Amino acid sequence: MIDKKILVTGGGGFLGSHLCERLLNEGHEVICLDNFFTGTKQNILGLMSNPRFELLRHDVTVPLYIEVDQIYNLACPASPIHYQHDPVQTTKTCVHGAINMLGLAKRTGAKILQAST
Fold this sequence. Notes:
By secondary structure, the protein is α/β, with parallel strands linked by helices. The chain has helices spanning 14-25, 80-85, 87-108; strands spanning 5-9, 29-34, 53-57, 70-73, 111-114.
């Protein structure tokens, strides 16, 4: 298997942090992207010392220009409490975030998994 550079948006969330850990254990380089609106640094503290792990505090509603081989887009507040707190930002994250990640995938030729709600 060829090691890949993989972007995980929403990497500070419950699912994203576990995915980051799994990908690192498989030998990949992982870029965890999160704005920590609902995710937490506590979820990824154990990964921070891994030299193949990088944290980017960034909002997916803003375009991102990096080179990656794969993208897992998990970025989206995923509970009714968070939807109700800021429904406009939730919608922007889901729609603009998906558009931005699809654009990044197109520019880099990366495979993308669109899994956000």
